[in-house]
Amino acid sequence: MQQRQLGADGPMVSAIGLGCLSFGGIFGATDSNASLRAMDQAWDQGITLFDTANVYGMGISESVIGEWMRTRGHRPVLATKAAFVNGPPRRVDNSAAHLRAELEGSLRRLGVDHVDLFYAHRRDPACPPEELAETMAALIREGKIGGYGLSEISPGTLRRAHTVHPVRAVQNEYSLWTRQPELGLIAACAELGVAFVPFSPLARGALGRDAFDVAVLEPGDFRLSIPRFQGRDWALNQQRLDGFRTLAAARGVSVPALALAWVLAQGDHLIPIPGTRIAAHVADWDGADRLNLTGEDRAEIERLLPRGWAHGDRYSDDQARTVERYS
């Protein structure tokens, strides 16, 4: 797989990473064996960046990654996150004491003495970005983390933190149906030498190989609470997505590969991390990094899925409480 640099001072990694959120069961029941097979498939395809967080299954995702590394003898570039404090209500804590304690737990579950990238999972309004950057810089000096990142933030927060200590990566949702980072965040990352890591680049499965059927989602599936997957909004979104599926078929590529190729084409500093717990889904991504979109391809994709086409918000009001909004 082609390689991209994880920030100006970071390691080279695969152009596409593996998002490990679903290892914890947020999108339905799973088991460690399925997750292990998904990681095997990813590694065989040349994927070297694995992305997780302490709250993914409340430690389950990190633990199964640790098991995979122990049993396979592989060491991917590891990214994990912390900041959430379970409630009720759920809140965000960027204090040095909280981040340090949570990082130590992550290292134990992963079975390593450091991670390559440690994100503040969300911004805590009570903690200035400059203070957060100082905490992360101390962890870097101590060898606990190789670099730090920020997630679901605005360009202003990035710039404030970066002034104190360079940010290695920013992780926000970005895909053909979530385009807000085009309002300055992707450009700010490029200007500062920061990697931009799109999560959910396949629209939480809506841009998977097969047409997505909300009716078959298991009770408790996170997507059932997202407005875009509900009622009339979802019906309208399906109509748009069907056109993109027709285009992928005409090009002779999988829907996920075409969607990932579009994300990769938005800048050399973008490293998308599609997520899955199913090995066959990982296989659908193969070749996306080598798929060159023509001017005609780009124009047709823009016609089918222009900026702002998606109906419904990407989060419920409660889920959006911890996300920085900007325009």
Automatic annotation (TrEMBL):
InterPro entries associated with the record: Aldo-Keto_reductase (IPR050791), NAD(P)_OxRdtase_dom_sf (IPR036812), NADP_OxRdtase_dom (IPR023210)
The record's annotation in PROSITE patterns points to: PROKAR_LIPOPROTEIN (PS51257)
Example GO CC term: the record gives: cytoplasm
The NADP-dependent oxidoreductase domain sits at: 16-304
* Keywords annotated in UniProt: Oxidoreductase
Name of the featured protein = Oxidoreductase
Output one GO MF annotation. Answer: oxidoreductase activity
Q: What domain of life does the UniProt record list for this protein's source?
A: Bacteria
Record keyword Oxidoreductase present? yes
